[in-house]
Write a structure and sequence with these properties.
16% helix; 3-stranded antiparallel sheet; 170 residues; 9 strands; alpha+beta
Length: 170
C-alpha cells in the first residue's frame, strides 16, 4: 500500500486497476472519486489522520478516508494475511451440532460496530475519530472495504477490492 500526504489524494496501488472498487454508496464511481489510472486506483480524498500508538492495528481500522461527507474505511490485507474475528460477548452460535461462542468476522457490520466501540473507549487515542465514525454509520455515510494484495507464482502481484455490506442506518 502506498499513500500520499493528506490533501493530495490517497493511492491504493495494484497492477490490475480497480474495476471492483469503482462503486460508491450512491452506486456511481465518479461521485465517490474513484478512477482507474494505469493499474492504480485513486480515491481523490485525504486520509484521515489516526493518532499514533493505537495498538498496532489489532482491533483498530487500517485506513480511513473522507470525501464529500462519506467515510471510506479500508481493511488492508497482505498476501498471507488472514481475516480476523472478534469474540461477541454473551452470544453463541451453532457449529457442527455444538453451541460455541459467537464471533464477528472482519467486514461484517457487527465487527465494524465492535471495533468502533472499542476505539471509542474512554482514554483511547482513537476516541474522537471513532465517535465521528459511529455517527457516520448511523447516518449511512460509511463505505467499508477490504483491499488485499494477491501474490502470483511468477513474483508479480495484484490487488483485489471487496466492498462489504454497508452498515445499516440506525
Amino acid at each position: 500500500m502506498r499513500s500520499r500526504p493528506a490533501g493530495s489524494g490517497a493511492t491504493v496501488a495494484g497492477s490490475m486497476g480497480v474495476t471492483s472498487a469503482r462503486r460508491s454508496a450512491s452506486g456511481t464511481p465518479a461521485s465517490a472519486g474513484w478512477r482507474s489510472t494505469a493499474g492504480t486506483g485513486r480515491l481523490r480524498s485525504p486520509r484521515v489522520a489516526k493518532p499514533a500508538n493505537t495498538g498496532g492495528g489489532q482491533f483498530d481500522l487500517d485506513q480511513v478516508y473522507q470525501k464529500d461527507g462519506l467515510f471510506f474505511i479500508v481493511e488492508a490485507k497482505g498476501p498471507k494475511a488472514t481475516t480476523t474475528t472478534r469474540l461477541v460477548p454473551g452470544e453463541t452460535a451453532p457449529f457442527y451440532g455444538k453451541i460455541v461462542p459467537a464471533h464477528a468476522i472482519q467486514g461484517s457490520p457487527k465487527y465494524l460496530q465492535m471495533t468502533l466501540e472499542s476505539m471509542a473507549g474512554e482514554g483511547r487515542p482513537t476516541r474522537a475519530l471513532a465517535l465521528q465514525l459511529l455517527q457516520a454509520v448511523k447516518e449511512g455515510k460509511v463505505v467499508y472495504t477490504q483491499v488485499r494484495t494477491v501474490a502470483k507464482p511468477n513474483g508479480s502481484a495484484y490487488f483485489s477490492v471487496k466492498q462489504f455490506k454497508p452498515p445499516a442506518k440506525q
